[in-house]
Amino acid sequence: MKSVRTEFLRPAAAGDVHALLALRTEAEGWLRSKGTDQWSDPETGERAITKWRAGIDEGRAWVVVGEQDEVLATVSRGPVDRDFWTDTDQPESALYLYKLIVSRRASGRCLGARIIDWMSRLAALEGRTWVRIDTWRTNAALHSFYEGLGFEHVRTEEPAHRRSGWLAQRPAGALTLPHHLLSIGSLLDHSEGEIASLALPPQRAVPAGERDSPAGSTWPGTAHGSPSAGREQKDG
Predict the structure, then answer these.
(1) How far is it, in rounded angstroms, from Cα 118 to Cα 8?
(2) For residue 31, how many C-alpha atoms fall within 13 Å in the half-sphere facing its CB?
(3) Measured distance CA(4)–CA(188) in Å, rounded
């Protein structure tokens, strides 16, 4: 009998930087093959690595690993980006998701959707209203991916020094795959604070008539595939 494939989410460590570089390089090639100009500037890759190192040091970067601890995907959370979100947006009401990349070899495992579901549950636990993203302005396929997962386009900002700026948000607590949640890896046991943040209660699938409240809702009929690569939110 074939064993069930298992993936785990854990905090990124300094030793993961090489694997993150490989994810980024793979994503750049995949994006070129799709004809998008996202990450076409080599300097964005250098900035990404600098930000990853800072995110790891600050406990904001995460990786999804397989049974042999191979890195299959990554995601980070971070502060509000003031190039895009203003006081009118009530920035403290949201969790900001960045640097979501899934390896091509993990395609078909719905990792993108499952990672977003985890961030959504975390946002709800923190009492936030939204999970927010900013994506590359010209990557229409990426916009459609997020809209398929329940994100709604808020607006597009176009600061001259940035190429991201397609802004979208999804209600905190909303789930795409409530019965296919990511497991949390054992490396969390060194940090009681992280464990407390991740001890999330199961989210129920709310019937259609009850979906006025964002917390605990699900998004039926949406795209369940993962973003194969190149799903980072920031320019670098």
Answers:
(1) 12
(2) 24
(3) 23
Q: Which long-range contacts (CB under 8 A, 24 or more apart) does 193-202 make?
A: 194/11, 194/59, 197/122, 197/125, 197/126, 198/122, 200/121, 200/122, 200/125, 202/178
Task: List Cα–Cα distances, 163 to 37, 60, 169, 202, in angstroms.
Answer: 10, 23, 19, 37
Note whether 229 and 104 are within 8 A (CB). Answer: yes
Is residue 45 within a helix (H) or strand (E), and if so which, with residue range? helix 42-57
Whole-angstrom CA distances from 198 to 121, 123, 134 are 9, 11, 24
Measured torsion, CA atoms of residues 36, 120, 107, 182, in degrees rounded to the nearest 10: 160
Which tokens in the block code for residue 174? 């909303």
What tokens appear for 44 in the block? 């964005």
Query: What pTM value is reported for the model?
Result: 0.74
Structure tokens at 121: 């549950």
Exposed e or buried b per residue across 58-92, where buried means at least 16 C-beta atoms within 10 angstroms of its C-beta: eebbbbbbbeeeebbbbbbbbebbeebbeeebebe
Contact indicator for 117, 175 with CB cutoff of 8 Å = yes
User: How would residue 35 be classed by pLDDT, with cut points 50, 70 and 90?
Assistant: low
CB-count burial class (<10 Å; 0-12, 13-18, 19+) for 31? buried
Cα–Cα distance measured from residue 132 to residue 153, given in angstroms and rounded to the nearest whole number: 10
Q: Any idea how long the chain is?
A: 236
Instruction: Give the span between the Cα atoms of 84 and 166, in whole angstroms.
Output: 9
95, 122 Cβ separation under 8 angstroms: yes
Per the CB < 8 A criterion, the answer to whether 236 and 47 are in contact is yes
Residue 233 in this model has a pLDDT that exceeds 60 = no
